[in-house]
Amino acid sequence: MLRSTHSCSLSGLSISFRYVHSRKAAGCGEEDWYGVAEILSLAEAVAAAIRDGDAVAMEGFTHLIPHAAGHEVIRQARKDLTLIRMTPDIIYDQLIGAGCARKLIFSWAGNPGVGSLHRFRDAVERGWPVPLEIEEHSHAGMANRYVAGASGLPFAILRGYRGTSLPAHTAGVAEVTCPFTGERLTAVSALRPDVAVIHAQRADRKGNVQYWGITGVQKECVLAAARSVVTVEEIVDDLDPRPGAVVLPSWVVSYVAVVPGGAHPSYALGYSARDNDFYVAWDAISRDRAAFGSWLDEHVRGDAR
Amino acid sequence: MTYTADEMMTVTAARALRDGMTCFVGIGRPSEAANLARATHAPNLVLIYESGTIGAKPGALPLSIGDGILAETADSVVSVPEIFNYWLQPGRIDAGFLGAAQLDKFGNINTTVIGADYADPGVRLPGAGGAPEIAAACAEVIVIIRQSRRTFVEHVDFVTSVGFGDGTGSRQRLGLTGAGPSRIITDLGVLQPDPETSEFVLTGIYPGGSVTEINDRTGWDLRISEELSELPHPSDSELTALRRLVATMPASKPGTAQPAAATAKGASR
């Protein structure tokens, strides 16, 4: 156990320690813990990575949202999750409405270009189906919290939040003074999810992951998390270079599952287009508890992959 | 050509942008206005969306800030931490465009909750998104909002993004690097900050509008500028360009494109 011997005090390295443990718990031999990500079915990957009560971050900034993985979490009926996401759009509206979440950490909860997230609002305003604790930040704050987590630091610094009502209602925001200039700045605590879940265009057979287009905050999310699940459009022999692509080496990824169309109604640049009609249609589906339940039964619970 | 109050608002907002500016754009009416400016008098306007697309040149209006068309037409696509840390925070961006569910006479914005009790809100709104740092760091901020007594309030229920705080000097005390909101553009007219007090005063009114109606739709004792002017009608070419853009918007109806506006719908008239 090469890395666990270094894990005692440095928080960044303790992430690696948890990561090693998770791989062992999932049945990996010790000899291959820093070898390749495991390529599993979606159901196996979610079952291996996500447990009741986990802090789970599903990222993808409008593009590459891991919807299929979210549906699998609903099918496996995970409970008491702390859901983390900058823009908890339809994917978290579904998980919240399905009763999977106890807490939401976020920075903008709407249906982009359409309106409210009705399941989210029902949970916050009326506690249905279960009360939802919230912890809200700004986008810049959330992005920097992931950066701190990925960097193995306890907090990040930005110019932000000052004069707003956010610090009065949100833990993990504090004023700090620059030791060099005396400028007053804002510190935000690091995000350290148990599990990161993302969707990518493709992986190779070793589990190296490649994605391009709007790349969002997924790299920081995966590196901040103890474990990760990556769904991909396809597995290829070689990841030939693409302009602007991010490659996550196999040894920072826990599980890869092939799920073509796994971002729908979001999209994967080069593979699919954003289903804008679905985002508009979601408004009516999600407005009513019964209509939402019927939709979930028909399109998620009855659609095992 | 005849036109609606919303079209007048969008055209007036587009006219506030100068060619060659860099502009941080939110989805909905800000995106409509910025793209209208680019299609008319400001072809070199640099559109920046918080999804990390810098210099996006969409031919059609996107429904979200992450539509593929933004990445495909951008000069550069960067990560989300980078767009906030390297591009917005240091003050590289000239103008930020924001919507609001509530604002007060100092241009402070609420997009978080309606109701005094945060823990038990009457209406839960989407929250901050990129707005607090856009409001803090852009050289200037333009706010677009439909005007009513429920949107123009004496005190906002939650300060999501800071305008001029308690008045002149607040931004400096808070260390906010941008100059703050330069104008509030509504479906009735335009407000600009008083240079002495930073309180927003009515400086522009649309053709055929009445100051009495504007007062009726303001939740504070609105001051009227001594140099109040009537703003020009939208030109035929502006209206044609706007309608062409709106027609490209996927599956959404004009006026419903902004979450805050949708939530405040019942309040707008």
Key features of this structure:
heterodimer, A: alpha/beta, 2 domains, three-stranded antiparallel beta sheet, disordered N terminus, B: 269 residues, alpha/beta, ten-stranded mixed beta sheet, two-stranded antiparallel ribbon, 9 helices, globular, disordered C terminus
What is shown here, in short?
With 305 residues, chain A is α/β, with parallel strands linked by helices. Chain A folds into two domains: 1-34, no CATH class; 36-114 and 192-301, Glutaconate Coenzyme A-transferase. Chain A has helices at residues 11-25, 42-49, 67-75, 90-97, 118-126, 139-151, 166-169, 218-224, 276-287, 289-301; strands at 38-39, 55-58, 81-84, 101-106, 133-136, 155-158, 173-177, 184-189, 195-204, 209-211, 227-236, 246-248, 255-258.
SSE blueprint and pairings:
The complex is a heterodimer of chains A (305) and B (269).
Chain A: H1 11-25, E1 38-39, H2 42-49, E2 55-58, H3 67-75, E3 81-84, H4 90-97, E4 101-106, H5 118-126, E5 133-136, H6 139-151, E6 155-158, H7 166-169, E7 173-177, E8 184-189, E9 195-204, E10 209-211, H8 218-224, E11 227-236, E12 246-248, E13 255-258, H9 276-287, H10 289-301
Parallel strand pairs in A: 1-13, 2-3, 2-9, 3-4, 4-5, 9-11, 11-13
Antiparallel strand pairs in A: 6-8, 7-8, 9-10, 10-12
Helix pairs in contact in A: 2-3, 3-4, 4-5, 6-8, 9-10
Chain B: H1 5-15, E1 22-25, H2 29-39, E2 46-49, E3 53-56, H3 68-73, E4 76-77, H4 80-88, E5 95-98, E6 102-103, E7 109-110, E8 113-114, E9 123-124, H5 131-137, E10 140-144, H6 170-174, E11 181-185, E12 189-193, E13 200-205, H7 211-216, E14 223-230, H8 236-247, H9 259-263
Parallel strand pairs in B: 1-2, 1-5, 5-10, 10-11, 13-14
Antiparallel strand pairs in B: 2-3, 3-4, 6-7, 8-9, 11-12, 12-13
